[in-house]
UniProtKB/TrEMBL annotation:
This protein's encoding gene: Fam173b
Annotated protein name in UniProt: ATP synthase subunit C lysine N-methyltransferase
Membrane topology: Single-pass membrane protein
Span list, region Disordered: 1-22
Primary location recorded for the protein, binned into one broad class: mitochondrion
CC per GO annotation: mitochondrial membrane
Domain of life according to the entry: Eukaryota
TM spans (from-to): 25-48
Family stated for the protein in its record: Belongs to the ANT/ATPSC lysine N-methyltransferase family.
Transferase keyword on record: yes
Length: 219
């Protein structure tokens, strides 16, 4: 690239056959290093810069404690699972290892491809799927377990979307930030590792969905 050429022009030209060979090797090595830097940047940049979303949602990997807290909220649960904004796929993969058919939606294609590789490497690729998609353009109506790593700006709109789309008995698990209006049925962890679980219930005698409000929380 341009960087390789600029560096290469600064290599002094040596006289003689041996000098010419050394100069040629210098050009090749410099070009190779420059190309490698460009390639590494192309791969690494999506991991450290926000994906283009309606709400800016940067990629922050889930901690080991967060993963364990999510799995705790999934105990005695079954059915399908979706991770909204699945990042590098670690929640989806962890859920698949617990027997869930797990799906991740992520707008960043590099992260999706990396997630698929990780699922294959960990031997759970048959129980996982990863899609490149904007979460606002996807319906989550057929999932019974939903995991969300969101930011405060998106939670009110996502709260309404999930309440409109999800069926009865679905469980929504929020990490890092709770939903603004719902009251959690269960809470575990502390600090950035806190996880809130919300259970959707059908009100008796009505077709509308509502959240069962349980004032006590579990620690």
């Amino acid at each position: 690239g341009a960087m390789s050429q600029a560096v290469a022009t600064e290599i002094p030209q040596e006289q003689g056959e041996g000098g010419s060979r050394r100069s040629s090797w210098g050009l090749l090595v410099t070009a190779g290093v420059g190309g490698t830097v460009v390639a590494l940047y192309a791969v690494a940049a999506p991991f450290v810069t926000p994906a283009l979303r309606k709400v800016c949602l940067p990629f922050v990997p889930a901690t080991a404690a967060q993963i364990q807290n999510v799995l705790k909220m999934l105990e005695n649960r079954s059915g399908s699972l979706v991770d909204i904004g699945s990042g590098d796929g670690r929640i989806v993969i962890a859920a698949a290892k617990k027997g869930f058919q797990a799906v991740g939606y992520e707008l960043n294609p590099w992260l999706v491809w990396y997630s698929r590789y990780r699922a294959w490497r960990d031997g759970v690729h048959q129980n996982t799927k990863f899609y490149i998609s904007d979460l606002w353009k996807v319906s989550f109506s057929h999932y019974t377990n939903v995991v969300v790593f969101g930011v405060p700006q998106m939670m009110p709109q996502l709260e309404k979307k999930l309440e409109d789309e999800l069926e009865c008995n679905a469980r929504i698990i929020a990490c890092r930030f709770p939903f603004p209006r719902w009251i959690p049925d269960h809470t575990t962890g502390e600090g950035i590792d806190t996880v809130w679980a919300y259970d959707l219930k059908c009100s008796r005698g009505y077709e509308t969905k509502s959240l069962e409000i349980t004032p006590e929380t579990e620690s």
